[in-house]
């Protein structure tokens, strides 16, 4: 005797139709988001003089964050694609005629939504906070603090303490420079240093990097007074750059770096690390977004069961609009709870309840007459009104011509 019921042929067929487009759309959305972010990271790293390959390590830590946003869209597209194929191929009509109910078709999709909801809680609730902290740690080590012994040509590099360095030419090693220009500020005075050549080298104790310049000048601008100019043949910049960044702060500097369990414990702590409103808003918003995946098929399936092409397109647009509105409503609720303008359980769960109510109404009204929903009736009403108005206008023109 098995503890779990055996999966029917219909359930496997519906899931097979759903999983393939869901995975494809999920991969496309995820790659689009990551590629856009990788391009920005490469620009940031190049400006800071950090190795470009770090961008891929940073992008890897962003996968859980973007996966939490892409999962609802991918699941919705998968469900819509599966039910649309059943409708377009007359399989849905044949199944309904043979006694298969709409509820039996939705059942495996709800089960898939439960699985995805658990995955979302793991990804958004636990993996994303850890990866967010790792992302910020890498940024601190490679961009915000340390300057690597490498400088790209014709690029202004912003180093720590307001120091900006550029060079006209850089050799393959990135350490020998020509046409060096340096701008910084010392004691409220703008200092510009230029040199014919320069080289990045280790300090005698081999713990830091120093910049040695040759054949150049240092100009200090004292405002109304005449600028001070110092020419040199061999000069070492009085700034040293550490090879390694100091240890990054401990995880938990933001509520987004805390896991679901840590958020729950901090909410009940006598002295929480963050304001309770922010902790509660983050906890409830994560949970509401994850649980909404369970009931997503109740919204998408009624809008997918139609044979008319024009209605199908409008239904797809309606489903997309509803999902965007629901996402923005959850975002607004999280912001209100974060600012302390409303309790988190009201601000974050009210959009969820509203979404669930709309989904239940659509599904309830489509079980007796599949494809006949409030939206389809509204479309038919608008279409009939436009047709009547067109006939009246055409009739008036004909009367005038007669």
Q: Provide mean pLDDT, rounded.
A: 81
Shape: elongated
**Share in helix:** 55-70%
The helix/strand order is HHHHEEEEEEEHHHHHH
How far the N terminus sits from the C terminus, by CA atoms, comes to: 82 Å
Count of spatially separate domains:
2
Largest sheet: 7 strands, antiparallel
Radius of gyration: 31 Å
Q: Please, how many helices?
A: 10
Q: For this entry, what is the oligomeric state of its chains?
A: single chain
How many DSSP E strands? 7
The share of residues in extended strands comes to: 15-25%
- Regions with pLDDT < 50 over 5+ consecutive residues? none
Helix and strand content put the structural class at: alpha+beta
Give a structural overview.
The protein is α+β, with helices and mostly antiparallel strands and 402 residues long. It has 2 domains: 9-143 and 251-371, no CATH class; 157-242, no CATH class. Helices cover 60% and strands 15% of the residues. The protein has helices at residues 9-48, 54-88, 91-97, 102-144, 260-267, 276-304, 309-338, 344-347, 349-364, 374-401, and strands spanning 157-159, 163-170, 176-186, 189-202, 208-221, 228-236, 241-242. Strands 1, 2, 3, 4, 5, 6 and 7 form a 7-stranded antiparallel beta sheet that branches. The longest helix is centred in the first third of the chain and has 43 residues, at 102-144. The relative contact order is 0.09.
């Amino acid at each position: 005797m098995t503890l779990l019921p055996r999966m029917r042929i219909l359930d496997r067929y519906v899931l097979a139709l759903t999983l393939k487009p869901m995975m494809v759309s999920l991969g496309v959305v995820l790659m689009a988001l990551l590629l856009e972010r990788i391009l920005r990271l490469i620009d940031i790293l190049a400006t800071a003089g950090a190795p470009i390959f770090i961008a891929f390590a940073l992008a890897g830590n962003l996968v859980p964050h973007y996966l939490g946003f892409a999962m609802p869209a991918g699941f919705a597209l998968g469900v819509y694609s599966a039910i649309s194929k059943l409708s377009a191929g007359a399989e849905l009509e044949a199944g309904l005629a043979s006694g298969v109910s709409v509820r039996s078709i939705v059942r495996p999709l709800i089960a898939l939504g439960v699985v995805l909801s658990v995955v979302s809680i793991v990804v958004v609730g636990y993996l994303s906070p850890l990866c967010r902290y790792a992302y910020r740690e890498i940024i601190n080590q490679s961009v915000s603090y340390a300057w690597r012994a490498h400088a790209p040509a014709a690029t202004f590099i912003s180093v720590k303490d307001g120091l900006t360095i550029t060079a006209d030419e850089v050799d393959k090693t990135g350490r020998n420079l020509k046409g060096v220009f340096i701008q910084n500020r010392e004691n409220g005075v703008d200092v510009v240093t230029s040199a014919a050549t320069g080289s990045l080298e280790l300090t005698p104790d081999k713990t830091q990097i120093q910049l040695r310049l040759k054949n150049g000048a240092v100009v200090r601008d004292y405002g109304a007074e005449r600028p001070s100019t110092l020419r040199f043949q061999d000069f070492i910049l009085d700034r040293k750059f550490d090879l390694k960044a100091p240890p990054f702060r401990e995880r938990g500097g933001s509520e987004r770096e805390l896991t679901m369990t840590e958020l729950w414990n901090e909410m009940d702590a006598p002295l929480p690390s963050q304001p309770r409103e922010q902790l509660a808003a983050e906890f409830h918003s994560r949970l509401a977004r994850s649980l909404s995946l369970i009931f997503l098929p109740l919204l998408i399936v009624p809008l997918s069961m139609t044979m008319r092409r024009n209605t199908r397109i409008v239904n797809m647009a309606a489903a997309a609009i509803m999902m965007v509105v629901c996402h923005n409503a959850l975002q607004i609720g999280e912001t209100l709870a974060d600012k302390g303008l409303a309790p988190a359980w009201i601000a974050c769960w009210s959009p969820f309840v509203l979404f669930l109510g709309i989904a239940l109404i659509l599904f309830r009204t489509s079980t007796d007459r599949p494809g006949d929903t409030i939206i389809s009736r509204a479309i038919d009403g608008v279409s009939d009104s436009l047709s009547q108005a067109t006939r009246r206008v055409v009739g008036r023109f004909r009367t005038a011509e007669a």
